[in-house]
Amino acid sequence: MIKILSSFGSLYFAIFLLSSGTGLYNTYMSLRLTQDGISQSWVGLLIAAYYFGLVLGVRFGHKLIGNVGHIRAYVASAAVVVVMVLAQSLIPVKEVWLLLRVVVGIAMVTQYMVLESWLSDQSDVHNRGVVFSFYMIMSSLGIVVGQMSIRFFPELEISVLNAVAISSSLCLIPMALTKRASPQLQSQAPLNMRMYIRMVPVPLVVLFLGGCITSAFYSLAAVYANKNGLTANQSALFLSVSVTAGLLAQWPMGYLSDRFNRLRMLRVSSFGLALASSPLLLLDSPSLGMMLVIIACMGCLQFTFYPLSVALANEHVSQAMRVGLSGALLLAFSIGATLGPIVAGRLMDYGGANMYIVYVMGCAIVMGLFVSKSHANYHPNIENAQYVPMAVDVSPAPVVHELDPRIDVEKDISTDAQVMEQVKDLVLNTEHPVSPIIPNLLVDEQDFEWTNHRKSSDNSTSN
């Protein structure tokens, strides 16, 4: 463990700094816009713009890294982030900020892709789980530190953006001084969303709703806290307690997930989130202590939807297809993360701050009902699908999933367009429909071999 920390120390430190800047940046945006009297719709829209940039940046970042290399792509992206953040201090126009936030998202996800590529390339099958765990811890810890750093700026002055820019600039130092060789960029797996929707619809729906909840938390939970009488420092504490609780809940949730029915776990978690958040609606002017206890319980549940759903999906998809599966799951989460702040912000404009809690409860109840409806079809049939803890702020950079110990990149066929077309044809055009959860034997490696062998045999026969 110590050896891994020392070996990857510069990369982990860069990840910590990048996440710290992100945590401070998004928290400041929410609180400062609220202080300036900007509507919650605009707060949500500006945070959603960042997530939209993250989604767009995956393809752009992959091309940039492929054209100029990892270090140049990282340096250029860091420079763009610094310029865009500082430009916000010079141009206090929210419509312009919308565009700047999209560009920041594109550049930041490119930085994440570079860092994750390095970790993936330099790790091996024996230490990937530990490397992945430290990545998750440093990323989550950075978010918490960034959120808590707002206490050094009680007036929410524009200089906070300078601190974000400094954090983004400091990210360059560990990368510039690293002695590790540049990694090889892996080919991107094509996203056959129709195929995965038919194979694993429940995890995709849960992740979509989980993205809606998570992004609304990072964009509007601070607004909710501030509107309910908490100061900027208390609002930052409100966020950090939830994130920390979500991080600590990963391990006990993983223990339970590997021993009990995962659909039942998701059903309990979703309805549990709705129940845990209800006191914030029912109690009249709850104390700070009570609010912290409630938001901690909410964090324990809402930040485990992602790893639970990924584990559930891996139960029903062959190991040979999990790189492509990870991309599909991440896309579903990212779409939800882009839409969540917009919907929640609009609801808060119409119904007040408490509509944030109503929104979370609504998403959780819909999730629970959908999972309950699919419960009868739950029959896991794939091994090596254990629960793996995930970072509490999931960035849509698919490279990190190559570190997932459940994925074997060397055996994965997701990037083989020809084979995946055959699999897609099998899944979408089979006479026997795939059940809502289980893709029966169409996704087993032996079927790929059988399909290819049959094709070769047919060609030989025709000749």
Automatic annotation (TrEMBL):
Pfam families: MFS_1. PROSITE patterns: MFS. The lineage of its organism: Bacteria, Pseudomonadati, Pseudomonadota, Betaproteobacteria, Burkholderiales. CDD domains: MFS_YcaD_like. Residues 7-380 form the Major facilitator superfamily (MFS) profile domain. Signal peptide: none annotated. One of its GO terms (cellular component) is plasma membrane. GO terms for molecular function: transmembrane transporter activity. The keyword Nuclease does not apply. InterPro entries: MFS (IPR011701), MFS_dom (IPR020846), MFS_trans_sf (IPR036259), MFS_YcaD-like (IPR047200). Keywords: Membrane, Transmembrane, Transmembrane helix. This is MFS transporter. The chain crosses the membrane at residues 39-61, 73-91, 97-119, 131-153, 159-178, 199-224, 236-253, 265-283, 289-313, 325-347, 353-371.
